[in-house]
Design goal:
This protein is an alpha/beta fold. It has a single domain, classed as 4-Layer Sandwich (Metallo-beta-lactamase, Chain A). Helices cover about 15% and strands about 30% of the residues. The chain is built from six helices and 18 strands. The strands form three sheets. Strands 8-7-6-3-2-1-17-18 form an eight-stranded mixed beta sheet, with no helix packed on it. Strands 9-10-11-12-13-14-16 form a seven-stranded mixed beta sheet. Strands 4-5-15 form a three-stranded antiparallel beta sheet, with no helix packed on it. β9 and β10 form a beta hairpin. α4 packs across α6. The longest helix has 12 residues. It is globular and about 50 Å long. The two termini are about 30 Å apart.
Amino acid sequence: MAVEITWWGHATVTVRDGGVRVLTDPLFARRLAHLRRRRGAVPPPVAAEADVVLVSHLHADHLHLGSLRRLAPGTTVLLPAGALAAVPGLRRLRDRLRLVEVAAGESLKFGELAVRAVPAAHDGRRLPYGPRRVSPLGYVLTGSARTYFAGDTGLFDAMAEEVGPCDVALLPVGGWGPFLGPGHLDPERAARALAALAPRAAVPVHYGTYWPIGLDGVRPHEFHTPGAEFVRLAARIAPGVAVHRLEHGQSVLVPDADRHRGGHGPAGDTGRGGGAPAGDSSRDSGGRQEGDR
């Protein structure tokens, strides 16, 4: 078996493992407050199909109520403990979704897949609506492989210890504005995190999708380049990790640990214009060609 990773943009990823379809931080909006989707089409309806949904923290670009409403009735949504009290709009979703609060260290099983919540270093408030803090989370999925979804986090000393061994790391490498505040990973810090985690493969996320309206001409390289810069730095700082830089809607297959042979592959660029490492395959889940993006 293999784990299939599909990046829909920002921190929204579908992970297929062991017959279970996991969706992270769903954000299907064309516009969010002052942010506009600048690259990649709004994800198609298939992106909202999931057995379980993981929400990492309360910020509206990760916990987006409108996107949660697109989920099928009965879908399980894991939320950081305290989210229901901090975000009143979630209570209106309880009649159609199974909302489950979890804290770091807790694990749940979904078929053959185990989901464990782990700590993250990020602002836990639901800005700008109130001061209530809810501890942000990452998640580790254990099935045919171990996949770490970091959510939105800074680099912290105990990251590798808290996450434990992992095969695939989904790491944020940028943001949605020209400057990153504390509690974020830029390409260099993400590459350092990759070296500490030492997975077999990595996919950069949380960059190159949303940008503030009216700031198109302000430090545009901060929008366009974090993914490629992460690939470059990972090749130097964590050369044993195969890095797959995906286009929006593109997928990569990562063989499970039992089928993997020959150690780690080199860091590389799986996106269009780059080659997929041997044994992996990439495709556009929406069936689109490059000119449609």
